[in-house]
From TrEMBL:
GO terms for MF: histidinol-phosphate transaminase activity
InterPro entries with a match to the protein in the record: Aminotrans_II_pyridoxalP_BS, Aminotransferase_I/II_large, HisP_aminotrans, HistidinolP_aminotransfase, PyrdxlP-dep_Trfase, PyrdxlP-dep_Trfase_major, PyrdxlP-dep_Trfase_small
Recorded superkingdom: Bacteria
Gene source species: Novosphingobium rhizovicinum
Gene encoding the protein: hisC
Signal peptide boundaries: none
Enzyme Commission designation: 2.6.1.9
Chain ranges passing through the membrane: none
Cofactor(s) annotated in UniProt: pyridoxal 5'-phosphate
PANTHER family: HISTIDINOL-PHOSPHATE AMINOTRANSFERASE, HISTIDINOL-PHOSPHATE AMINOTRANSFERASE 2
Protein name in UniProt: Histidinol-phosphate aminotransferase
Keyword list, A-Z: Amino-acid biosynthesis, Aminotransferase, Histidine biosynthesis, Pyridoxal phosphate, Transferase
Residues recorded as bearing N6-(pyridoxal phosphate)lysine in the entry: K226
Catalysed conversion reaction: L-histidinol phosphate + 2-oxoglutarate = 3-(imidazol-4-yl)-2-oxopropyl phosphate + L-glutamate
Top-level taxonomy: Bacteria, Pseudomonadati, Pseudomonadota, Alphaproteobacteria, Sphingomonadales
Keyword 4Fe-4S: no
Length: 372
């Protein structure tokens, strides 16, 4: 059989790449293009640390390549968290590092395991390297350690867990995370994605950093995109055994953090007060929002417990999640509806300013009462 003339043939992506659906980001405008108050991407409603903004203005000139190793930033992170900088790797957002972790340790024929309602990037990371995603059932939207462990096979290479998890907000306590780790063979990499860790009460430490310091098969990722208010600068970092960090370092983008990203993140690391202020604002406003929604239980509206800067709310009554989503958009708010993640009956609300969350709770009550 002869091939068609070259000019008629297009490059063919690998079959595992064909299977990927592009990541769906939170929207920032309504169907008519009108800008809305954005509570769909878990960004920090308090903005960015003023010190970080000042550092951006002063960043090195753009004609020069950045420090390829983000040396000053890794040193500052090491000091803050008491970690040897040799065990820290910075990434273009933690998303780069999650993807690298899958690519380095899994490939065609291997399995990558995570929970149902896990972060949507894990499926993309698994498929991108040709591995097979394996999804463990949830326990009332939370992580079920036994379900995860029962799906570990001789093909499992990487287990992803976000703690707290997005989009559910659920949190796996220290003893459960330790139990998950203890149940995994030592050649399986456990990735603990702590994108929202700054919002967790300090006394509820899940112990992931200690696991990463003590074991050769634990990688912890963190980000500047949420509590640090730097989503637009694309900065994340990971820590684990030196051997893990060295492997990921070989396959990352060579100059992955721009000059301004490094300068801004360095200033942000030092401004611990901004992060603490963000945590307290979130704690208070989230509790107030959850309390307001708990009063709507008779309408089938249920806020799930959250340790993060968002709340997942299920709608099982006359007011559906889709109708609520559209009603809120009409009132100027864009939140996250996740039918593509198996959650057509739920909305995820980023915790914004208190007056906005009050207005949303009041609007939901109004819509629920009108749809009885
Ligand atoms: C937002 C988020 C991240 C952070 O992604 P970046 O690439 O660092 O912006 C990572 N994991 C989870 C679960 C998230 O929700």
């Amino acid at each position: 059989m002869s091939l068609a003339p070259a000019k008629n043939r297009a490059p063919t992506p690998k079959p595992w790449i064909e299977a990927i659906h592009a990541y769906v980001p939170g929207k920032s405008s309504g169907a008519d293009g009108r800008p809305l108050i954005k509570l769909s991407a878990n960004e920090n409603p308090l903005g960015t640390s003023p010190a970080a903004l000042a550092a951006r203005a002063a960043a090195v000139e753009p004609s020069l390549y950045p420090d390829p190793d983000s040396t000053a930033l890794r040193r500052a992170l090491g000091e803050l968290h008491d970690i040897d900088p040799a065990r820290i790797l910075c990434g273009t957002g933690s998303g780069e590092l999650l993807t690298l972790a899958a690519s380095a340790y899994a490939g065609p024929g291997d399995e990558v395991l995570y929970v149902r309602y896990g972060f949507s990037l894990y499926e993309i990371a698994a498929r991108r390297c040709g591995a097979t995603p394996v999804v463990a059932p949830d326990a009332d939207y939370g992580t079920d350690v036994d379900a995860l462990l029962s799906l570990v096979s001789e093909r499992t290479r990487v287990v992803f867990i976000a703690n707290p998890n997005n989009p559910t907000g659920s949190f796996l306590p220290r003893d459960e995370l330790a139990r998950l780790h203890a149940g995994l063979p030592s050649e399986v990499l456990l990735v603990v994605d702590q994108a929202y860790v700054e919002y967790v009460a300090p006394e509820d430490d899940d112990g992931a950093l200690a696991l990463a310091a003590a074991h050769g098969n634990v990688l912890v990722t963190r980000t500047f995109s949420k509590a640090y208010g730097l989503a637009g600068e694309r900065v994340g970092w990971a820590t684990g055994a030196t051997e893990l960090i060295e492997v990921l370092n070989r396959i990352r983008g060579p100059f992955n953090l721009s000059n301004s990203a490094q300068a801004v993140a360095l200033a942000a690391v030092r401004d611990v007060r901004f992060v603490e202020h963000s945590r307290l604002h979130n704690l208070q406003t989230r509790a107030r929002f959850v309390q307001a929604l708990e009063a709507l239980g008779n309408h089938g509206i249920r806020p799930l417990p959250s340790e993060a800067n968002f709340v997942l709310v299920t709608f099982e009554g006359a007011l559906t999640a889709e109708v609520a989503y559209n009603g809120l958009a009409e009132r100027g708010y864009i939140v996250r509806w996740l039918p593509g993640q198996g959650l057509p009956h739920a909305l995820r609300f980023t915790v914004g300013h208190t007056h906005d969350m009050d207005a949303i709770a009041a609007a939901l009550r109004q819509m629920a009462e009108a749809s009885k």
